[in-house]
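In the previous lecture we treated proteins in isolation. Real proteins rarely work alone, and many bind small molecules. This record shows how such a complex is specified: first the sequence, then the SMILES for fe (ii) ion.
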Amino acid sequence: MGDEEHITRRDLLRRGAIGGLALGAVGAVGGALLAACGSSSTGATATTWTSPSTTAPPDTGGARWWLEGNYGPVKVETTATELAVTGSLPPGLTGLYVRNGSNPLQGVSPHWFLGDGMVHGVRLEAGTASWYRNRWVRTGLYDHGGGLGATGAPGGTATLSNVSVVGHGGATLSLGEVGIPYALDTADLSTVGPMAAYGGTNGNMTAHPKTDPATGNLHSFGYGFSEPFLEYRVHDASGALLSNQPVALPRSVMMHDFAITEHDVVFMDFPVVFDLAGATRMVTDPSSEAVPYRWTPSVGARLGVMPLGGPTSAIRWVEIEPCYVYHTINAVRQGGSVVLDVCRLDSTFAPATLPSASTRHRWRLDTSGTHLRFADEVVDVPPADLPTIDARSRGTTWRHAWLGELASHPGAVSFTGCQHIDMATGRLDRWQPGAGRTSGEWLFVPGGPGEGEGWVMAFVHDAATDRSSLVVLDALQVSAGPVAEVHLPVRVPYGFHAAFVTD
Ligand SMILES: [Fe+2]
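The predicted 3D structure, ligand included, written as tokens:
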């Protein structure tokens, strides 16, 4: 199991460095960062984008890039206190920023997505950053030594729990692609235990449940490898299960996300098909790099629309061109149509293990007739993914989105800076973290009454120092650069999704 290290600011002073810089120099360097790197543009006409700041993945001769560089796992659990801050943390920004990611306990995994979950948290309090901690999520797999091969079929407590963190019903949940959520203690990021009430009958819950801001209800699904291949669930604001209904699907597919409006649920049945042979090979021969899904466009792709809350028997489907969407941005009902914004990929789990880039699409599903009708519109902005919105506008009329900008490399991707898109004006505002610095998901945290008033934050890794910081931007002025940057004494590997848990 992992070692633990406790680092304080005094230790850093003794070691003489934060991020390779003498502590006394941090303010000046950070100040320069605050003044630099802003950029702003509109994306109305451009069709080709290059990123000014990328860190190429390590050259491993085509081997397991996800185990090296800042994709690679960290080996220890660290506690660092009295963190140095450049700029000014907003005093009202009090709570825990916590981000999940894949960090194989044994140091190896067959795919970037298939390592044991590790959460990284920074506690912000009244203008200070009181601590950083990283902790493996103590799942059933962790307890058996880590990795998907540790037990039988994945599901239930056999979860990597490595994708996201969601606060609901007073609990802070660590979520995986499959399996049940694990509750975390926000005081120290320790694992409280499994939350079976979210797992329905197939023992799986998506990492992307949606909270309906009108009711506080949590809408979710869980896909499985045997029938029922899909279940749709609603939990009330306290976490009590209101309903769990099967959704008829012809096969087991990897369904990473979905969308809700005030009136609708939208499911995405895309051709990433469960592959039993690949799953078996992955477990019996981890060096094979086999994965449990296979891109199978011959089975087609569909979008399904049904009433919010169900019944699932009322779902209607429309066929679309095979593609994959890891992440929806938001959806809204406009008269007889559902308008769904997504980050679209041509494929995934195809022979190349990662997609090259995501493009923004606006999909319109006309539900007014006997049959659904589908229209596809490309939104011309730089490739980006890991979208976040102001969750107060989930499923209803909305205006603002923030995404991590993508730079592609052969067989891999890097997230560079932050994009803010104002859907009302079409204005694209961008911030790049500078040469050799890369980010990931930018999480929106409300800081005022209006949609978009608040901050976005992400871990930014500096290749030169191999350390990370938590960067906080004004959500409506991202090109102005950081309002604050919390310097960490360690690196935070690239990962997936975060939450900000308030007290
Ligand atoms: Fe995701």
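Summary for your notes: The pocket of fe (ii) ion is lined by residues 163, 207-208, 256, 326-327, 496-497 (CB under 6 Å). The radius of gyration is 21 Å.
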